[in-house]
């Protein structure tokens, strides 16, 4: 979803770790806001000043894995308040 000059991405990651996600998104022109290594420093600074966000705008709302007994476990989490406030501020 386009939110002005920003893009909210809903991605399904089959495998991978946070670092790989960050590197890949940066390599295709979509660095994660708040990422101190791969993010855009100007945008990160703007988001800190405007919204007080002090971390990466990266959230896993659902994760699933296979337990040792063979059953699947799915855990869900709502978007944290600080990130929800940013989306609201952007009109998302």
What is the ordering of alpha helices and beta strands?
EEHHEEH
Shape: globular
Q: Which residue ranges are poorly predicted, with pLDDT under 50 across at least 5 consecutive positions?
A: none
Q: Order of strands across the widest beta sheet?
A: 1-2
> Which percent band covers the strand fraction?
15-25%
How many DSSP E strands? 4
Query: What Rg, in angstroms, do the CA atoms define?
Result: 15 Å
Main sheet? Answer: 2 strands, antiparallel
Helix content: 25-40%
Termini Cα gap: 8 Å
Question: How many helices does DSSP assign?
Answer: 3
**Arithmetic mean pLDDT:** 90
- Secondary-structure-derived class: alpha+beta
Write a structural description.
It is a single chain. The chain has 92 residues and is of the alpha+beta class. 34% of the residues lie in helices and 15% in strands. The protein has 3 helices and 4 strands. A two-stranded antiparallel ribbon has the order 1-2. Strands 3-4 form a two-stranded antiparallel sheet. A hairpin with a 5-residue loop joins β3 and β4. The longest helix is centred in the middle third of the chain and has 11 residues. The protein is globular and about 50 Å long.
Task: Annotate the secondary structure layout.
Blueprint: E1 2-3, E2 6-7, H1 18-27, H2 41-51, E3 62-66, E4 72-76, H3 81-90
Antiparallel strand pairs: 1-2, 3-4
């Amino acid at each position: 979803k386009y939110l002005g000059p920003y893009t909210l991405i809903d991605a399904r990651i089959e495998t991978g770790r946070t670092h790989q996600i960050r590197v890949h998104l940066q390599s295709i022109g979509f660095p994660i806001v708040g990422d101190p290594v791969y993010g855009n420093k100007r945008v990160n600074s703007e988001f800190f000043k405007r919204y007080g966000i002090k971390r990466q705008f990266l959230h896993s709302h659902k994760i699933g894995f296979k337990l040792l007994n063979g059953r699947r476990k799915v855990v869900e989490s709502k978007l944290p308040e600080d990130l929800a406030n940013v989306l609201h501020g952007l009109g998302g």
